Amino acid sequence: QVQLVESGGGLVQPGGSLRLSCAASGSIFSIGAMGWHRQAPGKQRELVATITKIGTTNYANSVRGRFAVSRDNAKNTVYLQMNSLKPEDTAVYYCNCVAASSSTWRNYWGQGTQVTVSS
Fold first, then answer.
1. Per-residue pLDDT band at 102 (split at 50, 70, 90)
2. Could you tell me which of 18, 76, 77, 107 has the fewest CB atoms within 10 Å of its CB?
3. What does residue 73 show for φ and ψ, rounded to 5 degrees?
């Protein structure tokens, strides 16, 4: 099994910054792509950013230019640097990864961390 634990969420003012971290642990043979999704109240979960094992990134149009995703393969950790935060960024942020455990590839999800952007 693979476990993902997010950290770094909290309350921040509009225009502020926040850095999220997500560390994978457990029975890991290999980790492929990693990324972040978010879910705001009353809305469907949406993709925020992804990063491949070699560092290729993708971003939702709503966060491109403001957010940056990165990873540390040695630590099995993915990060999300969030700058110029807006109230509409308020959501529960979930990290995810594609990982091989017991020789099978599966998609794993963290428990989520709350990000609130408000004055």
1. confident
2. 107
3. -65, -30
